[in-house]
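$ run holo --ligand "glycine" --emit tokens
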Amino acid sequence: MNTLTVDLGDRSYPIVLGNTADWIELLCEKLSGRTALIITDENVDAAGHLEKLEKALAANNYTDFQSLILPPGEEHKSLATVEFIAKAAVAAKLDRKSCMIALSGGVVGDLTGFAAAIYMRGIEFIQLPTTLLAAVDSSVGGKTGADLPEGKNLIGAFHQPQMVALDTDTLSTLPETEYRNGLAEVVKYGMIMDKDFFALLQNNTEKLNSFDPGFYAKIIIRSCECKAGVVAGDEREQGSRAILNYGHTVGHAVEKLSNFALPHGRAVAIGMAAAVRLAVLMDLCSKDVEALQNQLLTELKLPTRLPENSDVDAIVQAMKSDKKNSSGGITMVLPTAVGEVKIVKGVDEELLKTALKGVL
Ligand code: NAD
Ligand code: GLY
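-- output --
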């Protein structure tokens, strides 16, 4: 078992990586004397993870909870689902001292965190991630929210969880494609802040492609260390936290234009390919950096090209509604080397279109 801390003063919280037996007592301690609502989705339930959690809670004499099972998928990451969760919380008699628990991937995690942020003006919540993407990224850092038809995550709140705990055994039921989505965010950490981690990934693609649990445990820990460090330095994204958005500006645009048929992780991989192309065109980094990043993504069976028939103008238009922009136009995170990035405001639109055409 490994425990890290997200250091945010009196709102600090642990990230516990191990299995349910390692952290169930700590979870029950946090829930003691309060009601809770576990929120999960149909796939996580079908894989047996909800039942395992419910049994473990009961075995530790905590029974004051109810469970809510949502339909899976980004198309349900809406305000309507937030309302559905809030109504279920009322029905389950959650009060201001109660707790919501997200047991699933980033969609349920973001929705649950947001519902907790606004239910009775804010109650506590706990993240129990069950996808690689949620374990290495979305469960940590307190960004919560829902999508609008106009764009991804346009409604939301910063609301830090009380605890993040992963049972690595849950990843054994994760479909291969979901592992690969998570790997896009793992590669992101190497590119934005840790060239040694990038090299570790490059040298271990076989283990990554065979889903070696021991190796995954190692990369999850390092990814969480990276994320916890960035969040502790800039919780509300006033500056440096924005580096975590590498690949996300183009990524969110293509995700939205695909009507969310393109999963987040794959969209981020394409976004990183577009960003490094632009960085090369702007002389911010060498072609070697682009080749190294794209080779790793390709070896991990992640896309580095836009979906066929993509409309470059429509992508740029969608990027303009990204909430990461400031009044100075489109803001993007661009690499200067493997392990180093720079936040660029007011990106030249014509050059951006050339970069996007370069990854068509
Ligand atoms: P997801 O939550 O949709 O989960 C992917 C799929 O895997 C779903 O079908 C789910 O039902 C299924 N699943 C989950 N756990 C499983 C398991 N153990 N076994 C079998 N199936 C399982 O997607 P995701 O990739 O986890 O998260 C993507 C979301 O996270 C996006 O909405 C994105 O915007 C958000 N996100 C948020 C942050 C943040 O900081 N808050 C960061 C990155 C991404
Ligand atoms: N995934 C971006 C962030 O947490 O800031």
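-- notes --
The chain has 15 helices and eleven strands.
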